[in-house]
Amino acid sequence: MLEELLQATESHGARLVAVSKTQSPERVMELYNRGHRIFGENRVQELQPKYEALPKDIEWHLIGHLQTNKVKYIAPFVQMIHSVDSLKLLQEIHKQADKAGRTIPCLFQFHVAQEDSKFGFSPEEGLSMLEEGSWRDCTHAPIHGVMGMASFTDDEEQVRGEFQQLKSLFDTIKTRHFPNDTRFSELSMGMSGDYPIALEEGSTLIRVGSLLFP
Ligand SMILES: *Cc1c(COP(=O)(O)O)cnc(C)c1O
Predict the structure, then answer these.
(1) Ligand 1 pocket, residue 212 CB under 6 Å
(2) What average pLDDT does the segment 53-58 reach?
(3) Rounded alpha-carbon distances, angstroms, from residue 146 to 21, 59, 89
(4) pLDDT tens per residue across span 101-128
């Protein structure tokens, strides 16, 4: 499955984040030994011990909801945070990254799905926060793009519509706030059930768990 996924991902110029949440370090090592280096976790309590136990050339991405009081535990090593859903969180990431002598690329998570249980900014909320501008002070937590999840449904057209909505938000934000900043380039969308659609709609980072760890 890894090779197949990598082929699909790379043919779209995207990258694969192997979501290893709930998987043992041994299972992570199986993919590591086949050459994979980018892994994603959704909980700090799980990410931190895995970081300690596993090879240090793994690129760890935090993809799940992050509480401000937990940022300090991952700031010394995390390579990207996909799930920034408040200005307060971004400011804390900036502060802890600065303390650790690091810069941590961040993505703003947007809520585009029908289900209301998911985290993230609503489009209106996110756009007005960007307009307000104080995120620009967070130089140790530069914004590299946006992340979102589609509804959990068999309705492909609905999923495609939600990915298109996220892509269009990405384009709007790029034009308004990052016209000359090449770092703003990541569109994190697509999971096991919908990654082919996400790739067709412009994803640059797919986050796949269950397909890779059956
Ligand atoms: C678990 C998770 C994934 C991967 O989901 P699969 O359906 O197992 O591929 C992707 N993104 C986030 C935010 C997750 O929590």
Answers:
(1) no
(2) 98
(3) 21, 19, 15
(4) 999 999 999 999 888 766 899 999 999 9
